[in-house]
Amino acid sequence: MDLQVHLDQVLADLPACESVWLMGMDGLAVARAVRDPRTSDEMESFAAEYTSVIQALHRAFQRMAADTYLFEHIHTTGRCYLLARFVTPSYYVLMRLRSDGLLGQARYRLQRLCQRLAAELEAF
């Protein structure tokens, strides 16, 4: 299982992508690809804290519509986009994209990445 290769490829394919994290719902990073290593610790801490946001959204969606669950979530700030997409119910990918990045292209790459990661995790 080589999850790292998939994350590194997304970072290489999207110049505006600053980092990509495969996160467990326990808040621990399983794999990561970071463009600037100086921001790695700060982003890892943020990614761990972001898990509680994802958990709260997941619970809210389950209460709202029992037959559906959260696939993707996007936060937009003045400096970046944060995209989160579930790979499995236990894992999600968090991507940080600069605000000058192409959001549609990033969403497409994120969807493809999650499909590949799901296949890798299933084989494990």
Reconstruct the topology from this structure.
Blueprint: H1 3-13, E1 17-24, E2 29-34, H2 40-64, E3 72-76, E4 80-88, E5 91-98, H3 103-123
Antiparallel strand pairs: 1-2, 1-5, 3-4, 4-5
Helix pairs in contact: 1-3
Based on the model shown, name its key terms.
alpha+beta, globular, 5-stranded antiparallel sheet, 3 helices, Beta-Lactamase, 124 residues
Overview of this structure, please?
The chain is α+β, with helices and mostly antiparallel strands and 124 residues long. It has one domain (3-123): Beta-Lactamase, CATH 3.30.450. Helix content is 46%, strand content 29%. It has three helices and five strands; from the N terminus they run H-E-E-H-E-E-E-H. The longest helix has 25 residues, at 40-64. The chain is globular and about 40 Å long. The termini are close together.
Outline of the structure:
The protein has helices at 3-13, 40-64, 103-123; strands at residues 17-24, 29-34, 72-76, 80-88, 91-98. The chain has 124 residues and is of the alpha+beta class. A hairpin with a 3-residue loop joins β3 (72-76) and β4.
